[in-house]
Amino acid sequence: MTATNVLRPSAETQYAEELAALAANDDKQRPPQWKLSPQAVVRYILGGTLPDGTVISPKYVGERRLVEVAVGTLVTDRALLLVGVPGTAKSWLSEHLSAAISGDSTLIVQGTAGTSEEAVRYGWNYARLISEGPSEAALVPSPVMRAMQTGAVARVEELTRMPAEVQDSLITILSEKALPVPELNMQVQAIAGFTVIATANDRDRGVNQMSSALARRFNTVVLPPPATEDAEVEIVSQRAAQLGRALELPAEPPSLDEVRRVVRIFRELRGGTTSDGRTQLKKPSGSLSTAEAISVVTSGMALAAHFGDGSLGADELAAGLLGAVIKDRVSDTAAWQEYLEAVVKERKEWRDLYRACRELDPA
């Protein structure tokens, strides 16, 4: 399988040229096992132009100091916890930090209610275990164990969705930098460069609070939502255009005006007030995150490409907006109807969007 037919290449594959250029221009000291110096990692995340003219695209739009603190944490022996509401690019930042530091962002444990302790520690090849008994050959290392053995970054996504007892299996790993294997009377020692980047949010249902013992072993960086409408428009435009190219959508890149409409709707409904502060609004039950805004624009581009004239407009946005806003049929429908009548209808430049949304009226 080649990189050209992979639906979603890993960050180190997709941005291989940028990473190679950064490494070639990087004359700063690199910590053990790191592919780039901390300064080069920050440049990879935030973007810039190298001395040889290579343009590094920004991967994260936000405060530089937050990225510097995150990278500075990973230089030490502390693990990093990225916290924020849904859609604040926690997983995106985690992936790119891993790609820049280790050249491998695929050592992932995905946290869910069903994640077992084996996913964090190790498992067994049961056929060999039954036939041969416990042995290193029968051991199946977890992504965390492989990261310990190679001095790489392990990613733990949605840490607080895992059961508390599974979360706490990280305590020994993070404090002792070792993973005991009592069945073999041995332990795996982490080599220099090993660290963990975890992500968590406390907005969704199904969250299991971290124990204080585990929380103490992380340095926490809180990723805020985009501070301004312009910043969020930039993020949504950039990611939607990237996704459109990756999916080979035969549609024009979304215009800033259409992206701004989606972003403004999301920000006003999230905040419970219009951008001018004059009208109070009911808040829907969903998070209406930046990631969901990207999804609305991308799905609109797909509709425009295959069922429209190739240009994203109100008709293509309406269905996506409806699906993003209305999660609870009763309360969210009432909030959306109020917003349509009190805000969208009153904005003359949004009359086309009002008409398109009314045609899809779920009431």
UniProtKB/TrEMBL annotation:
<dbReference type="InterPro" id="IPR027417">
    <property type="entry name" value="P-loop_NTPase"/>
</dbReference>
<protein>
    <submittedName>
        <fullName>MoxR-like ATPase</fullName>
    </submittedName>
</protein>
<dbReference type="Pfam" id="PF07728">
    <property type="entry name" value="AAA_5"/>
</dbReference>
<feature type="domain" description="ATPase dynein-related AAA">
    <location>
        <begin position="80"/>
        <end position="218"/>
    </location>
</feature>
<dbReference type="InterPro" id="IPR011704">
    <property type="entry name" value="ATPase_dyneun-rel_AAA"/>
</dbReference>
<dbReference type="InterPro" id="IPR050764">
    <property type="entry name" value="CbbQ/NirQ/NorQ/GpvN"/>
</dbReference>
